[in-house]
Write a structure and sequence with these properties.
This protein is of the alpha/beta class. It folds into two domains: 252 residues, 3-Layer(aba) Sandwich (Rossmann fold); 54 residues, Phenylalanyl-tRNA Synthetase, Chain B, domain 1 (2-Layer Sandwich). It contains twelve helices and 14 strands. Strand 13 and strand 14 form a beta hairpin.
Length: 345
């Protein structure tokens, strides 16, 4: 195995040796995948685990660990966590070992294929699945090893598929029709949620979304394994798209606590704090879909802030949505929304 040329950086509370970006392209063939743009992704996982588990001990699996960034941060920033970092690549495995030593942490490291590791394990309270591309090939094994009341975190970077640019691929891979308009990111997240929930049901595991996001090139959903949950009633076609998950995308109380914690945490980036502020407001309005100012046929498009203020003045819940920079999530009906917006135009 060739020696990987690295540089040292810091993320959260840890130091990391990562493949030198001047020497290696950011692809699946990289010795160990590390993407600075995913720092916020890892920030959110830390905050969610802190809020959800509190001071309780839990065992966590970072299934496709790459450089070990997430696994190391979990152990460093949540000391009571018992962490396993795994990657099938020998170059990644070697780099994780270096990073564990660099940070003087106690983490178990394995160099197994995902399926082999999962099938040989007893189960985990937290499983993080963050693949390069679609999570679909791993899901059947992953859901079988999530403990009762555990948390499953799923990342999908095949957003061109989930957002409708590759329509046939979405129908084939996720068994759902995607949107190709301003709603495509939310519909994509709801398609992903639907597919993960259905995979859980095959193994009598009831998975309930508690946090969702669509950011840059990826979609991310956290699920809680629960009892007495009937998700099939909330999986249906919607506006010709889907079938999709029509239930809540967030646990509003959880998101509020995550945002409050982020403000106090010196290791959390400003990008994450700003995103959580926006999602905390959005989570309080449990609608499916939103309205977008650019989709309206108006002679003059009003300011987003003015539109939200006017809707609130009329007694409607209204806020920005993180799914679109020009979108508004509100409980106003389409006819009333259109009427109010035209009065401003």
């Amino acid at each position: 195995m060739a020696i990987v040329k690295t540089i040292q950086i810091s993320e959260g509370a840890v130091k990391l040796k990562i493949p030198d970006p001047k020497k290696y392209r950011l692809t699946a063939q990289s010795p160990a995948f590390y993407n600075t743009a995913m720092t916020s992704n890892r920030d959110i996982s830390i905050l969610l685990l802190k809020v959800f588990f509190g001071n309780r001990k839990f065992n966590a699996l970072d299934l496709l660990s790459a450089t070990g960034a997430r696994a190391l941060r979990i152990k460093k920033e949540i000391p009571q966590a018992v962490v396993l970092a795994n990657d099938a690549k020998k170059s990644a495995f070697a780099l994780i070992k270096q990073n564990v030593k660099l940070n003087k942490l106690k983490i178990k490291i394995t160099n197994d294929f995902a399926w082999d590791l999962l099938m040989g394990s007893k189960g985990f309270d937290y499983i993080d699945l963050d693949p390069f591309g679609t999570p679909v090939p791993f899901l059947d094994a992953v859901v079988q090893k999530l403990n009762p009341n555990g948390i499953l975190a799923i990342t999908a970077t095949d957003t061109t598929v989930l957002c409708g640019a590759e329509y046939k691929a979405c129908v084939r891979r996720y068994k759902a029709r995607p949107a190709r308009n301003y709603l495509m990111h939310e519909v994509g997240v709801r398609i992903l949620a639907k597919y993960v929930i259905e995979t859980g049901l095959k193994h009598k595991l009831f998975l309930k979304p508690i946090f969702s996001q669509s950011t840059r090139h990826y979609m991310r959903i956290y699920f809680k394994a629960v009892k007495d949950f009937q998700p099939t009633k909330q999986i249906k076609l919607w506006k010709g798209f889907g079938p999709i998950w029509l239930g809540r995308l967030w646990d509003a109380d959880l998101v509020e606590k995550m945002h409050e914690l982020s403000i106090k945490d010196k290791f959390i980036s400003d990008e994450t704090k700003n995103l959580l502020y926006k999602i905390a407001l959005e989570a309080k309005i449990p609608t499916v879909g939103f309205f977008d100012l650019t989709a309206m046929k108006l002679k003059q498009v009003p300011k987003l802030s003015d539109s939200i203020s006017k809707l609130q003045e009329k007694g409607y819940q209204s806020t920005r949505t993180h799914f679109s920079p020009t979108g508004i999530r509100t409980n106003a009906k389409e006819s009333e929304f259109d009427k109010i917006l035209r009065s401003l135009g």
